[in-house]
Specification:
- By secondary structure, the chain is mainly alpha-helical.
- It folds into 2 domains: about 100 residues; about 290 residues, ABC transporter involved in vitamin B12 uptake, BtuC.
- Helix content is about 70%, strand content about 0%.
- Strands 1-2 form a two-stranded antiparallel sheet.
- α6 crosses α7 and α7 runs parallel beside α9.
- The N and C termini lie far apart (about 60 Å).
């Protein structure tokens, strides 16, 4: 009778510690949301009371060995109380100017997309056992060579020059990744040092060619004419809330959704994905059964360069429509942080990129109402959350067992 009563339709056990922890996380988010438009509750009692419930649920879940969701609920409760109280102290006019959910949703997807490409590229690389700190350099390389290729092809490819730009960006990313593969796999150079060196190399090469080709004038101003196009879904555009978010997204955003689904299927549902994971976890055992560790790692690292470079091409060809020196400004590192936060799994990593993208979207809107200091604070939130994840407060992030370890074939 007790077991039956503790279940809901679909087999959800309401009294299970994990379920309680998830409810605590939702309560923490609710504590903040109630103080925002359209409800915009003005009493501080409400976010404090709901936040305390979230913390209590987290402690209860944590004490029963569900540390990941339990710690998440405690963190959500604390943040819900803090941000909820701050929101109640703000004027409704300022809140209305900042918190426009449809605009924030669309901006979140735009900011999250380059993080998705960087993180998924890193996922392939690190699942094979090679740490890829060079994601930042690969993004920057893709951003420059993508726009350079599109400008070069515009004369004969017309408005389809963006296709050439994406292809050249992917090739440039593969070339940089191939260097990382040779250094890390064949020459067995420390993978962190190799990745760091490639980041500086990418910064120098793109900066030199950019100044040499475009000088002080910068890239042409007509890039939007032949950049990556937006996809207009006309029947969605008039839908409340959903229309402004999904009705006019860039093609690269839609492709990132397909990339996530394809990566999940490939890595976790195919024999090739099993080989990839086996090389990253137990290369000696994989080698014993006839799997070429070097071959798998080379393919994974070079593929990661192509995927990450496409994220950079999205920035220059689909988002900003121009290029400037060091324009990625740490985006690759945040993508790597999202990968760690998501525990090297595609959809959990996507959730982390959305969280980080939301921080950037909110940071863009905060200065107009509250000053630049609040925008800067929210830009730092992704890094704080990453530290929380890596420290194990919401479940320790442990990567593939062989990541960062060169393999010696015997």
């Amino acid at each position: 009778m007790t077991a039956t009563a503790s279940r809901l339709v679909g087999g959800i056990r309401w009294t299970h510690p994990k379920t309680i922890g998830i409810v605590g996380i939702l309560l923490g988010a609710l504590a903040f949301w109630l103080a925002l438009p359209p409800l915009a509750a003005r009493t501080q009692v409400l976010p404090i009371a709901i936040g305390i419930l979230a913390i209590a649920a987290g402690i209860w879940s944590w004490s029963r060995d569900q540390r990941r969701v339990g710690g998440g609920a405690v963190a959500a409760g604390i943040l819900g109380i803090a941000f909820g109280v701050l929101a109640t102290r703000s004027s409704t006019a300022h809140l209305d100017s900042v918190v426009v959910w449809s605009a924030l949703g669309a901006a979140t997807l735009r900011y999250a997309t380059p993080l998705v490409y960087a993180a998924i590229g890193g996922l392939y690389c690190e699942r094979s056992g090679v740490v890829n700190i060079a994601l930042e350099g690969m993004l920057l390389t893709g951003a420059f060579f993508g726009i350079w290729g599109a400008i070069w092809a515009h004369g004969w490819a017309g408005n389809l020059a963006w296709i050439v730009g994406l292809a050249i960006a992917a090739l440039a990313g593969m070339a940089l990744a191939a260097v990382h593969a040779v250094w890390s796999i064949s020459l067995k150079v420390d993978q962190i040092i190799s990745g760091t060196a490639l980041n500086f190399l990418a910064l120098g090469i793109t900066g030199f060619i950019f100044i040499d080709k475009y000088g002080d004038s910068g890239t042409p101003g007509n890039i939007p004419d032949y950049g990556v196009p937006d996809i207009h879904i006309h029947f969605l555009q008039n839908w409340y809330f959903i229309g402004p978010i999904l009705g006019q997204l860039n093609l690269m955003i839609w492709l990132s959704f397909l990339l996530l689904i394809g990566t999940y299927i490939f890595v976790f549902r195919t024999p090739y994905g099993l080989r990839l994971r086996s090389v990253g976890e137990h290369p000696r055992a994989a080698d014993t059964v006839g799997i070429s560790v070097y071959k798998i790692r080379y393919i994974a690292v070079i593929s990661s360069g192509a995927i990450a470079a496409l994220g950079g091409a999205y920035i220059s060809l689909g988002f900003v429509h121009s290029f400037s020196e060091n324009m990625t400004a740490g985006t690759g590192f945040i993508g790597l942080a999202a990968l760690i936060f998501g525990k090297w799994r595609p959809f959990a990593t996507w959730g982390a990129t959305l969280l980080f993208g939301f921080s950037s979207a909110l940071a863009d809107r905060l200065p107009n109402a509250y000053g630049n200091q609040w925008g800067t604070l929210f830009q730092a939130l992704p890094y704080f959350l990453t530290l929380v994840a890596v420290a194990g407060v919401i479940g320790r992030s442990i990567g593939p067992a062989a990541a960062g370890r060169p393999y010696d074939k015997q």
